[in-house]
Write a structure and sequence with these properties.
Mn(2+) binds at residues 50, 144, 148. With 183 residues, this protein is of the alpha+beta class. It has helices spanning 3-7, 44-73, 76-86, 89-101, 131-135, 151-154, 158-165, 171-182; strands spanning 107-114, 119-126, 138-144.
Length: 183
């Protein structure tokens, strides 16, 4: 009897800082041996308790931490502006993803800064149309939704690509752009 029979998992734990573009929730890995394999030195009950309760708690806490990590990366004045202009970081993500999914054919989803209003705004541009030239917004964050950006990995599942893209956004760069355009 392997550990999966008792804990009910058959999936492997992904590396904590593995390939960010395809990060999935971590799951409790199976032990490569039976819980009783270490007896008489360590009994099966201790191994099962440690694996199914303690180790599982660490894995679950890692998932919770990684969910909060993205919001923490966008911090300070940028995060305050996102909350002010969109209500919350989650609402901002939803709105930018919706605008990006909605691009017909090829183009870009954007977070831009409206200098006249002093506000962040979301926009979408078709093809290679520039954000500032077509909307007047100063580009802070662009998401490429041309098929070449994701098709080999995500096929025609643009929403899946857009969910994954949040794992690799360089928030330090976005913050620098925001601070520079506010001057």
């Amino acid at each position: 009897m392997l550990s999966r029979a008792v804990c009910g998992t058959g999936r492997q734990l992904a590396p904590a800082l593995g390939y960010l573009g395809s990060r999935q929730k971590h799951s409790l890995p199976d032990l490569p041996y039976d819980y009783g394999a270490l007896e008489p030195h360590i009994n099966a009950e201790i191994m099962q308790l440690h694996h199914c309760k303690h180790h599982a708690a660490y894995v679950n806490n890692l998932n919770v931490t990684e969910e909060k990590y993205q919001e923490a990366l966008a911090k300070g004045e940028l995060l305050e502006a996102i909350k002010r202009d969109f209500g919350s970081f989650e609402k901002f993500k939803e709105k930018l993803m919706a605008a990006s999914v909605g691009v017909q054919g090829s183009g870009w989803g954007w977070l831009g800064f409206n200098k006249e209003r002093g506000q962040l705004q979301i926009a979408a541009c078709p093809n290679q149309d520039p954000l500032q030239g077509t909307t007047g917004l100063i580009p802070l964050l662009g998401i490429d939704v041309w098929e070449h950006a994701y098709y080999l990995q995500y096929k025609n599942a643009r929403p899946d690509y857009l969910k994954a893209i949040w794992n690799i956004i360089n928030w330090e760069n976005v913050t620098e752009r925001y601070m520079a355009c506010k001057k």
